[in-house]
Amino acid sequence: MGRWREVTVGVSEAESAEVAALLQAQAPGGTVIEETREGTVVSAYFPLDSSPEPGAGALNALAHHFPHLRPLARPLLEEEWMQGWRSFFSPLPVGERLLILPPWEHRRPPHGRVVVVIDPGPAFGTGHHPTTQMCLEALERNLRPGMRVLDLGTGSGILAIAAARLGAKKVVALDTDRVATKAARGNARANRVLGRVSVRTGSLDGRLKPFDLLLANISSQTIIEVARPLARAAHPGAVLAAGGFLAEGLSAVERALGEAGWHTEDVLTGDDWRTLVVSRT
Ligand SMILES: C[S@@+](CC[C@H](N)C(=O)[O-])C[C@H]1O[C@@H](n2cnc3c(N)ncnc32)[C@H](O)[C@@H]1O
Fold first, then answer.
1. pTM for the full model?
2. Which of 78, 122, 134, 202 could bridge across to 275 with cysteines, CB 3.0–4.6 Å?
């Protein structure tokens, strides 16, 4: 069973950085540049459930900017993915206060950074993707100790765990994918925040008590669909960071959120990705 789609393309050494940057802008699973016996190869990773044809936008961009290249796409088995991502998951400072570490990193963290240890396994969310980083930055800026936080589409649990480590009183982390909730629960336990982070398989239902801060790093289509349920799950004045979409999706997402009672406070930019920070009117 493939959960990721791998796009690989042989490139010249000179064009490798530019090709990797172009793919990185659209690849939720990140990119890797490798020197192989056949020459330089750039690989990019797309979750199979993200769209009807994961990576299609990246392949189109590649065909447009580098028409001479011949990319190959194939589904990647979970075991291959788990081995592959380890090679490019390094310690990552985010924002002013956070440091994301892989579980095998034993160096002492720099003084003052709040450490979040993440072993994503096959779930999305190492912190290296711009959409995750923008949500972490929005979280860091808007979280006050004691808040109730919702993380919709928790993946590896990275946002939920960061919220708890930064002082949230209670975090509800939801994901429709059982593989993700298993990873998120394991990570919450490893970070000793399982008592404050409640991980559940599923999505928003009407029974949740209102939240002060909401995070939804998913996709434009899903955010448009859940704009109203998110508003119902928010206290007046609550802040939502909504991401997981490219610049071209921004206006449709902003319109749907506006119609659902959210006021735009800020638009964050990371490569071609956008994150909307909105408040509940
Ligand atoms: C891009 S990942 C984000 C992971 C992590 N929160 C981060 O920021 O790195 C999106 C996650 O949303 C989940 N998802 C998709 N649609 C959803 C829905 N309607 N409700 C809850 N989770 C959903 C997917 O299974 C996936 O794990």
1. 0.77
2. 134
